[in-house]
Write a structure and sequence with these properties.
The protein has 255 residues and is an alpha/beta fold. The chain has ten helices and six strands; from the N terminus they run βαβαββααααααβααβ. The strands form two sheets. The chain has a four-stranded mixed sheet, covered by helices on one side. It has a two-stranded parallel sheet with strand order 5-6. It binds glutathione.
């Protein structure tokens, strides 16, 4: 029996749900960021983060480790490319999505879903777009070694990690410019042909429709961890962040 502590908005939880579905594995979903499920989540992940996965008596946390676990235990429909070089590239893309891209998009998204009275700090979005463009250019170069729009021939950890972020761009006023990054754009279009991706998009749309009336999910205090704080500080938004800490609007991971 597989149980996933998930959240309809978390790119990391969505990544794991997509991998489970792609592999055709049945699982039970628990909304891990609901207030009434917090104690249950803490029992499986002391950091109080989703995703966390229970497979009978095995507990795995952290999305990339969960995907690696799933591949070991359920190898039938692979989510890593076959060749060693391709596998290294797919893991690197997964890491880029999980660290830098997630940090930029989360920071630029806050004013679209959180309960806020302020406006986003001046220059935040421009800075986010500039850094995303630099990352997209690196991905574009990496894709030059592959000759199909879906570089590894099937969905992999790279797609599961990137898809939630690429689908979020437009609603945040950010762009993936097809004329500058044609291979990355073609890859995104190719992802859209897969049921696993489309089902994820539909679930997320449904979740977002109910978010503003869902008191179970915290939207006033924001959860902060390493990569997301790093990007803010590295890009000079420390005064805004310090204001958040002083105003008591910050939640940290548990230890
Ligand atoms: N490195 C972790 C990151 C997980 C993470 O950041 N989860 C966020 C949601 S996107 C979370 O659970 N935050 C707790 C909260 O919002 O209370 C992974 O890859 O699974």
């Amino acid at each position: 029996m597989i149980t996933l502590f998930t959240n309809g908005f978390s790119p990391f939880a969505r990544k794991v749900a997509m991998a489970l579905e792609y592999k055709g594995l049945d699982f039970e979903s628990i909304e891990g960021l609901s207030r009434h499920n917090r104690e249950r989540l803490l029992k499986v992940n002391p950091r109080a983060e989703v995703p966390a996965l229970l497979d009978d008596d095995i507990c795995v946390v952290n999305s990339s480790e969960i995907l690696a676990f799933l591949e070991h235990k359920y190898p039938a429909r692979p989510i890593y490319p076959k060749g060693l070089n391709a596998c290294v590239v797919a893991r690197a893309l997964e890491r880029m999505a999980d660290t830098a891209i997630d940090a930029i998009i989360l920071n630029c998204s806050i004013w679209t879903w959180a309960i806020r009275e302020d406006k986003e700090p001046p220059g935040l979005k421009e800075c986010g777009q500039r850094d995303l463009d630099a990352i997209f250019a690196r991905i574009e170069a990496m894709l030059g070694d592959f000759d199909t729009p879906l570089p590894f021939g099937h969905l992999t950890v790279a797609e599961f990690a990137l898809w939630p972020h690429l689908t979020a761009l437009r609603s945040m006023g950010l762009t993936l410019d097809a004329s500058k990054y044609p291979r990355l754009h073609a890859w995104f279009i190719a992802m859209r042909e897969h049921k696993t991706c489309l089902d994820d998009a539909q679930r997320t749309t449904n979740f977002m429709k109910t978010l503003k009336t869902n008191d179970e999910i915290e939207r006033t205090k924001l959860f902060w961890r390493g990569d997301r704080v790093e990007w803010l500080l590295a890009r000079g938004f420390h005064d805004w962040f310090y204001g958040e800490i002083k105003a008591g609007r910050v939640l940290w991971p548990e230890y």
